[in-house]
């Protein structure tokens, strides 16, 4: 299985940015961790980060040609972006939404995800392990196979 992990805005600052919420692990360390974790399960993990909504949308649009599934942390765009929601809905491969923090235990405006409706599910609150859990969720889903491509629920 080939998975593209997409990180949204400000996640390039991981390790420095509000470490009491997001931890001290940097984005490149998270990515390295995910590549190694994927290897254990014969999953080819590629990672991409952008602060720009349009670049994230382009990657989502292109993903179905090269990947079997997406893991996405839309970061601040989670709570606002209809354009990312549309891109995920148009995408023919399954996606899992991930957050490092438990967005449901934070400010009111973070409790609602616009983008999760286009994903198979959402995993949040486990720091970098949220991404590992998303890999496991996709492995379980692919074992169930039925309608893995295009699956949302
Ligand atoms: C986040 C949660 C979002 O509310 C926030 O805007 C982020 C990070 C997380 O991973 O916990 O940038 O997506």
Shape: globular
Q: Please outline the major beta sheet.
A: 5 strands, parallel
Q: CATH-wise, what's the superfamily?
A: Dehydroquinase, class II
Strand order of the largest sheet: 2-1-3-4-5
- Poorly predicted segments: none
Structural domains: how many:
1
Separation, N- and C-terminal Cα atoms = 19 Å
Rounded to an integer in angstroms, the radius of gyration calculated over CA atoms is 14 Å
The level-1 CATH class = Alpha Beta
Helical content class: 25-40%
Please count the helical segments.
Answer: 6
Bound molecules: 1,3,4-trihydroxy-5-OXO-cyclohexanecarboxylic acid
Order of helices and strands: EHHEHEHEHEH
Just name the CATH architecture: 3-Layer(aba) Sandwich
Q: What is the percentage of strand-forming residues? A: 15-25%
CATH fold annotation: Rossmann fold
Structural class: alpha/beta
User: What value does the average pLDDT take?
Assistant: 95
Tell me about this structure.
This protein has 153 residues and is α/β, with parallel strands linked by helices. It has a single domain (2-152), classed as 3-Layer(aba) Sandwich (Rossmann fold), CATH 3.40.50. Helix content is 40%, strand content 17%. It has a 5-stranded parallel beta sheet with strand order 2-1-3-4-5, sandwiched between helices. α4 links the parallel β3 and β4. α3 (53-66) runs parallel beside α4 (82-90). The radius of gyration is 14 Å and the shape is globular. The model has no long low-confidence stretch (mean pLDDT 95).
Helix and strand arrangement:
Elements (H helix, E strand, L loop, with lengths): L1 E6 L11 H4 L4 H14 L3 E6 L3 H14 L2 E5 L8 H9 L4 E5 L8 H4 L9 E4 L4 H16 L9
Parallel strand pairs: 1-2, 1-3, 3-4, 4-5
Helix pairs in contact: 3-4
The chain binds 1,3,4-trihydroxy-5-OXO-cyclohexanecarboxylic acid.
The site of 1,3,4-trihydroxy-5-OXO-cyclohexanecarboxylic acid has 10 residues, from loops.
């Amino acid at each position: 299985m080939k998975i593209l992990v997409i990180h949204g805005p400000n996640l390039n600052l991981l390790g420095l940015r509000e470490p009491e919420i997001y931890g001290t692990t940097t984005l490149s360390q998270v990515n390295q961790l995910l590549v190694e974790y994927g290897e254990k399960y014969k999953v080819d993990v590629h990672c991409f980060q952008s602060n720009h909504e349009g670049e994230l949308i382009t990657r989502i649009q292109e993903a179905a040609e090269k990947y079997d599934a997406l893991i996405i942390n839309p970061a601040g765009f989670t709570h606002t972006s209809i354009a990312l929601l549309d891109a995920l809905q148009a995408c023919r491969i399954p996606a899992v939404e991930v957050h490092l923090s438990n967005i449901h235990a934070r400010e009111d405006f973070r409790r609602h995800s616009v983008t999760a409706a286009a994903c198979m599910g959402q995993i949040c609150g486990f720091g970098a392990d949220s991404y590992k859990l998303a890999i496991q969720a996709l492995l379980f889903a692919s074992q169930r196979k039925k309608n893995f491509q295009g699956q949302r629920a």
